[in-house]
């Protein structure tokens, strides 16, 4: 199946009336089979149980002061029709807001507005909190039908909405979308980028702790880890993403280098973090400049363990620091790319780390094939049962046990630059794919690759599932994640990754042939993704939360040297065409398109 079939699509050739359906939270509509108050929108709409309850309450409140049963019966149909527009698959375009309907205009077409005003003006005005007589637009108590009709015309001239996003005209659009609209075959798949955080300094990781706190942790290459949370700015208002100013962890004083890939590269939380409070960071820093009076600098790559502070869950306990693993290396020149890797994750209880070749020049790949070197390898560690004298043990089923020249920590070899390896969480229902290790391999101006790495792999046994010529899609592949979230079922099983200068890419496996198909992901414009953003000029990394949702991390200026503005941004990747009922996905973050700081 072509990727354009299962991803959301921008129907650019469509008439304006065919604009992508979207809800008030600027996300795709979904199915709610138990719809009762607004059943016309149950098949494909924007309300679950809570949304229907809000629509019902809005209509009921509008009729509170109606005097007679006859008045209430007459107005009940009008108020229900209007309040249920909150559940329309076009609610985001009807109301243009994630809050209660504003009083700039009402979502009624002019003729229906006049009819509603004449028959149920008190309910209509109460529903939208309007007092047009205060501006002299209408009379408060019209004394004849002629005056009432004149008032209705004046009111609707001022407040009625334009087609097609007004009632009842909008219902003609909804008939086209009783299910997610099928994409035209000539269109390419598009996603939306919902802003999550900005003003960051080279963000490289966003990850959950797996402790049920719904916090996300953002790694800045400069040496800080910051916490991102969802909070309500107002008691009954929408949730917004809030980035803590005070770091969760800060090692900036240790990181003296401002070159290449050196700095704080990743963080990972122990699978039992909720019980033991253990976390691990991977970082590199300069030990000695001009080592032994040469032009080379001596650097160290490190894995270090910390524990959470006992008195503050938003801080690490610096006294708990415990070195796990360290490698020394020389960096030969300022103009040589630094290939540190940075893939860092737990799988099957073991901690994995991808390390690049570092200063190796174009096309060498020598160190990645040398089993007596850690460089150009995927390493693994048992950090729960450390051997005496070091912070870890080697897993018992070491694949190179019969090779006396091989370092025991090696899981796989032959990867020049594994920038951001990740493990597949597996299909949420079947578990299919769980544990597969996806590793990109940044080429040396030759080709960029994506590999599924298995234990014991060597260069002659590893075959990429995707490769592209240097410069065709960009200049450096950036590893991503297999989407396993709940919110966007069309994306399930898609490996979302990118290129440093080439934007977003995606791979999907053909289950019959076993082949993977690459698709360049477009990002929808404002008609498809209202409130969303365009891709950043430079893609740095991708992240994944505890619910399997995927995030893009990028920047406008790929440097964190002193004086360089903090232009790092994080976006949640969403499907504008289809999503599941958000209440079924309570463990997944559902960001609003704005962020603030505390």
What can be said about this structure in brief?
This protein has 598 residues and is α+β, with helices and mostly antiparallel strands. It is built from nine helices and 26 strands.
What does this structure look like?
This protein has 598 residues and is an alpha+beta fold. It folds into 2 domains: 29-177, no CATH class; 190-597, TolB, C-terminal domain (Neuraminidase, 6 Propeller). 14% of the residues lie in helices and 29% in strands. It contains 9 helices and 26 strands. The strands form 5 sheets. The protein has an 8-stranded mixed β-sheet, with no helix packed on it. Strands 2, 3, 4, 5, 6 and 26 form a 6-stranded mixed β-sheet that branches. Strands 7-8-9-10 form a 4-stranded antiparallel β-sheet, with no helix packed on it. β11 (344-347) and β12 (350-355) form a beta hairpin. α2 (49-62) packs antiparallel against α3, α3 (69-83) packs across α5 and α5 (110-127) crosses α6. It is elongated. The protein starts with a helix and ends with a strand. The model is unreliable at 1-18, 98-103, 182-188 and 593-598 (pLDDT under 50).
List its salient traits.
single chain; 598 residues; alpha+beta; 2 domains; six-stranded mixed β-sheet; 14% helix; 29% strand; disordered C terminus
Q: SS-based structural class? A: alpha+beta
Question: What is the strand content?
Answer: 25-35%
Outline: elongated
CATH classification class of the largest domain = Mainly Beta
């Amino acid at each position: 199946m072509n990727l354009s079939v299962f991803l959301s699509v921008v129907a650019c050739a469509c008439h304006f009336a065919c604009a992508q359906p979207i809800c008030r939270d600027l996300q795709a509509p979904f199915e709610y089979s138990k719809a009762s108050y607004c059943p016309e929108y149950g098949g494909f709409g924007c309300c679950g149980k809570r949304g229907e309850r809000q629509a019902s309450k809005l209509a009921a409140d509008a009729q509170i002061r109606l005097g007679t049963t006859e008045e209430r019966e007459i107005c009940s149909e009008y108020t229900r029709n209007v309040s249920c527009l909150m559940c329309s698959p076009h609610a985001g375009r009807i109301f243009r807001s994630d809050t209660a309907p504003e009083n700039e205009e009402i979502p009624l077409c002019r003729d229906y507005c006049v009819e509603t005003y004449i028959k149920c003006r008190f309910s209509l005005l109460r529903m939208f909190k309007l007092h047009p007589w205060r501006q002299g637009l209408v009379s408060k108590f019209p004394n004849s039908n002629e005056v009432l009709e004149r008032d209705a015309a004046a009111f609707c001239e001022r407040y009625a909405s334009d087609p097609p996003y007004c009632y009842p005209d909008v219902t003609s659009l909804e008939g086209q979308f009783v299910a997610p609209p099928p994409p035209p075959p000539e269109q390419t798949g598009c996603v939306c980028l919902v802003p999550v955080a900005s003003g960051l300094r080279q963000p490289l990781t966003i990850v959950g702790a797996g402790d049920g706190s719904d916090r996300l942790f953002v790694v800045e290459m400069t040496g800080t880890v910051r916490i991102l949370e969802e909070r309500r700015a107002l008691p009954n208002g929408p949730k917004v993403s809030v980035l803590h100013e005070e770091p969760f962890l800060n090692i900036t004083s240790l990181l003296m280098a401002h070159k290449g890939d050196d700095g704080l590269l990743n963080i990972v939380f122990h699978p039992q973090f909720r019980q033991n409070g253990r976390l691990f960071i991977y970082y590199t820093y300069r030990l000695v400049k001009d080592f032994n009076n040469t032009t080379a600098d001596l650097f160290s790559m490190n894995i270090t363990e910390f524990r959470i502070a006992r008195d503050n869950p938003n801080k690490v306990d610096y006294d708990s620091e415990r070195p796990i693993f360290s490698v020394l290396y020389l960096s030969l020149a300022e103009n040589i790319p630094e290939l540190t890797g940075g893939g860092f994750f737990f799988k099957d209880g073991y901690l994995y780390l991808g390390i690049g070749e570092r200063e190796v020049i174009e096309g060498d790949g020598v160190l990645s094939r040398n089993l007596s070197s850690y460089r150009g390898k995927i390493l693994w560690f048992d950090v729960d049962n450390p051997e005496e004298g070091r912070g870890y043990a080697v897993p018992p089923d070491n694949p190179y046990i019969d090779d006396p020249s091989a370092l025991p920590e090696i899981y796989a070899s032959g990867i020049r630059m594994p920038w951001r390896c990740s493990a597949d969480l597996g299909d949420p229902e079947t578990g299919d794919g769980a544990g597969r290790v996806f590793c990109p391999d940044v080429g040396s101006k030759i080709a960029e690759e994506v590999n599924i790495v298995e234990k014991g792999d060597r260069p002659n046994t590893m075959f990429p599932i995707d490769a592209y010529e240097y410069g065709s899609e960009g200049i450096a592949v950036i590893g991503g994640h297999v989407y396993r979230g709940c919110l966007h079922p069309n994306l399930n099983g898609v490996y979302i990754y990118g290129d440093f200068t080439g934007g977003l890419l995606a791979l999907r496996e053909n289950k019959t042939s076993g082949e993977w198909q690459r698709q360049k992901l477009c990002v929808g414009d404002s008609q498809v993704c209202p409130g969303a953003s365009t891709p950043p000029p430079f893609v740095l990394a991708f992240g994944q939360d505890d619910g399997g949702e995927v995030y893009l991390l990028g920047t406008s200026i790929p440097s964190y040297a002193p004086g360089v503005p903090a232009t790092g941004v994080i976006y949640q990747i969403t499907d504008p065409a289809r999503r599941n009922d958000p209440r079924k996905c309570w463990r997944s973050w559902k960001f609003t398109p704005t962020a603030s700081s505390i």
